[in-house]
Structure formats: structure tokens, C-alpha cells
């Protein structure tokens, strides 16, 4: 039995390389999904141009045309709802979403963020990692909640920081791993193996029906797997009964 392809809407403010990675994977049959719309706060975003080239509806909703953030978000999500997505993917969407639009779509919005959350939320994550002297950096895919970069993390990819890295070099290496991370996560969502369970206050990620205690990790073969449990220590005291 084959299920219907996952209907994806993408929100992007910039160049849209993650959007392109999704489109390319769909085109070659590596992701059972359909792009049903691309939405931006920036009419000039290259992501919208990519969408037009792909024949996907491309919609800009400018914040400055609205009196408040919630009013902008309401209109944006009215347009998104009109294309009937199963899942909304924030891929370089540079605005915080307001609480009502997020709460109404619990478990249906994900974001890709270029750091190993909860480290380095917000902007300039690569510079933040360098400034902190991090040896390991990377990217995370998480469910969106009203808290900036704060929702439950589904999956991560790790990228080693090299001694001569600057923010740009590091960003390039992270971006190269972001694309397979996003695609592998979308495959798990498309097949229903990953879902958000629980209430607004206690939500957690389920993988194959079990709560995840740590984000899935992308391995060098681009497979997402659970972190290996630490080996049982030989020095564990034996029970004395
Ligand atoms: C990516 O680094 C993503 O993690 C971040 O913004 C960037 C977007 O890149 N949220 P692109 O527009 O998909 O090329």
C-alpha cells in the first residue's frame, strides 16, 4: 500500500538552498512529498524565484503591510492554509512566528537551525560557536513552538570545528550537512515514523512509537539513528541480595 505524498509548504526569507534540496530529492524519487507552496516575508527572496522555476506557487506577504506581527502571521498562514499542507517547513525563515499561529498548528511546523540546539539559538550561530570555542557544531531540525529555536529537537548533524575556521567556512560545511539532515528528517515524517506527541506543555518527539530521549543523529551515510547508549560499565557494582 502506498500512502499519499506529504504535502509540504516551505517558508523562506533568503536563497532557498534547503528548498532546492527538497525539490531535487522529490524530482529523483528520494522523498515521497509534494511542494504545494513557498512563502516568504521578502518579495525579492531567491527562494520565491526557485519556486516559480519549479512551477510551485510562490507567495510573498510583507510584514510592513500589516499593523502588527500577529496580523502579518494571520494573513501569511491564511495563504499557507489555502494550499493545504500536511507540514510547514521553515528553512531560513528569519522571523519569529507569533503564538496563535504556532499553537494552532502544533506538530505541523518544523524549522532547520544551524546549531546543535539548545546551543546557539538566534542569529550568527557560526560566529557564536567560534566565539564560544566550540569543538563541535552542526545543525538541528526541531518542531516549532512560540519560543525562538526552542521546540523539541527531532534530529541533528554534527560538524567538527577546524582550527582555521571562520564563520563563513564553517557555515559552508554546516550547510552541506543541513540538506541531507533535512531530507532524512522529512523522510521519517513522510512515513509517519516521527511525530510530536503530548500536550503543549509536555510535548515530546516519538520515533517508531517510542519517546526520543535525545535527538536522532545523522551518520556519515546520511542515515538518522538513535544515539548509541553508553556501554555498560564493567565497574558497576553487582547487586548483593
Ligand atoms: C540555513 O543555514 C538554515 O539553517 C538557516 O538559514 C539558512 C537558510 O539557507 N535557518 P537557505 O535559504 O535554505 O539556503
Q: Low-confidence stretches at least 5 residues in length (pLDDT < 50)? A: 233-241
Mean pLDDT: 93
**Which fold does the CATH topology refer to?**
Rossmann fold
- Secondary-structure-derived class: alpha/beta
Taking all Cα atoms into account, the compactness measure Rg is: 19 Å
The termini sit apart by: 53 Å
Number of helices: 6
The major β-sheet equals: 9 strands, mixed
Shape: globular
- Assign the CATH architecture: 3-Layer(aba) Sandwich
Describe this structure in words.
By secondary structure, the protein is an alpha/beta fold. The protein has a single domain (6-225), classed as Formyl transferase, N-terminal domain (Rossmann fold, 3-Layer(aba) Sandwich). Helices cover 29% and strands 24% of the residues. The chain has helices at residues 17-27, 46-54, 69-82, 99-103, 125-131, 167-190, and strands at residues 6-11, 33-40, 58-60, 87-91, 109-113, 136-143, 153-160, 194-197, 204-207, 210-211, 216-218, 224-225. The strands form two sheets. A nine-stranded mixed sheet has the order 3-2-1-4-5-6-7-11-12, with helices on both faces. The protein has a three-stranded antiparallel sheet with strand order 8-9-10. The protein is globular. Mean pLDDT is 93; it is low at 233-241. Bound molecules: 5-O-phosphono-beta-D-ribofuranosylamine.
Amino acid at each position: 500500500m502506498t500512502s499519499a505524498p506529504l504535502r509540504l509548504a516551505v517558508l523562506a526569507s533568503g536563497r532557498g538552498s534547503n528548498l532546492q534540496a527538497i525539490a531535487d530529492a522529490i524530482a529523483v524519487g528520494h522523498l515521497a512529498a509534494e511542494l504545494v507552496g513557498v512563502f516568504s516575508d521578502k518579495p525579492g527572496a531567491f527562494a520565491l524565484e526557485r519556486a516559480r522555476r519549479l512551477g510551485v506557487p510562490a507567495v510573498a506577504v510583507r510584514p510592513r503591510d500589516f499593523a502588527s506581527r500577529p496580523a502579518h502571521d494571520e494573513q501569511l498562514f491564511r495563504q499557507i492554509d489555502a494550499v493545504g499542507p500536511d507540514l510547514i517547513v521553515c528553512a531560513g525563515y528569519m522571523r519569529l512566528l507569533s503564538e496563535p499561529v504556532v499553537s494552532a498548528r502544533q506538530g505541523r511546523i518544523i524549522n532547520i537551525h544551524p546549531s546543535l540546539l539548545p546551543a546557539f539559538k538566534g542569529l550568527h550561530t557560526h560566529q557564536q560557536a567560534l566565539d564560544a570555542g566550540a569543538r563541535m557544531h552542526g545543525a538541528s531540525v526541531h518542531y516549532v513552538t512560540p519560543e525562538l529555536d526552542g521546540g523539541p529537537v527531532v534530529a541533528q548533524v554534527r560538524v567538527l570545528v577546524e582550527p582555521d575556521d571562520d564563520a563563513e567556512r564553517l557555515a559552508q560545511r554546516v550547510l552541506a550537512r543541513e540538506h541531507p539532515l533535512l531530507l532524512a528528517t522529512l523522510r521519517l515524517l513522510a512515513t509517519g515514523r516521527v511525530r510530536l506527541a503530548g500536550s503543549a506543555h509536555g510535548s515530546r518527539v516519538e520515533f517508531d512509537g517510542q519517546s526520543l530521549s535525545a535527538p536522532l543523529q545523522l551518520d556519515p551515510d546520511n542515515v538518522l539513528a538513535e544515539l548509541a547508549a553508553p556501554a555498560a560499565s564493567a565497574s558497576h557494582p553487582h547487586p548483593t541480595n
